[in-house]
């Protein structure tokens, strides 16, 4: 876990950026309602600067997650690298405007980056991934269904519109 006390940050980041790095266990994401089947601890590195009563954390999160293939449901290793900036405020005068600008209030004397790391990882999960085997699969057919590639989709004409094609041919001959 990456936890920092406000006193430690004020002392360390007073004149220069405070650099930090570490490994964070985010395996809790596997239990949530998402496609992540497995995720190993992620590497986090970055720095913190202070501007007035704001603590600005700029950091990079790298790791790998295992997701299901969209076609075959086999495990697909998906490496990721996230670069992000999170701003925290220790001001007791926390306004509605700051809520809209994504400035997080600091409760107490300890700032924990773990929830924000998890949030950024969840935002990074792709809509779908494909395994190498799924990319090489031939088009498949079943009773009333068919899996087609994008190239084949562009070349085929819906049979319901086949009769309309003859209207266009007649129109071209008149010109």
Characterise the protein shown here.
The longest helix is centred in the last third of the chain and has 13 residues, at 162-174. With 175 residues, the chain is α+β, with helices and mostly antiparallel strands. The chain contains six helices and ten strands, in the order βαβββββαββααββαα. Strands 2, 3, 4, 5, 6 and 7 form a six-stranded mixed beta sheet that branches.
Task: Summarize this structure as a short list of keywords or feature phrases.
6 helices; elongated; alpha+beta; single chain
Provide a quick synopsis of the model:
With 175 residues, the protein is of the alpha+beta class. The chain has helices at residues 6-12, 96-100, 114-124, 132-135, 150-155, 162-174, and strands at residues 3-5, 18-24, 38-39, 42-51, 54-68, 75-89, 103-105, 110-112, 141-142, 145-146.
Sheet of most strands: 6 strands, mixed
| Strand segment tally | 10
Work out the radius of gyration. 26 Å
H and E string: EHEEEEEHEEHHEEHH
* Count of discrete domains: 2
| Tally of individual helices | 6
Question: What is the end-to-end distance?
Answer: 74 Å
The average pLDDT is 83
Poorly predicted regions: none
Question: What would you call the structural class?
Answer: alpha+beta
Helix content: 25-40%
Shape, principal axes of CA atoms = elongated
Strand content: 35-45%
Task: Describe the SSE topology.
Elements: E1 3-5, H1 6-12, E2 18-24, E3 38-39, E4 42-51, E5 54-68, E6 75-89, H2 96-100, E7 103-105, E8 110-112, H3 114-124, H4 132-135, E9 141-142, E10 145-146, H5 150-155, H6 162-174
Parallel strand pairs: 6-7
Antiparallel strand pairs: 1-8, 2-4, 3-5, 4-5, 5-6, 9-10
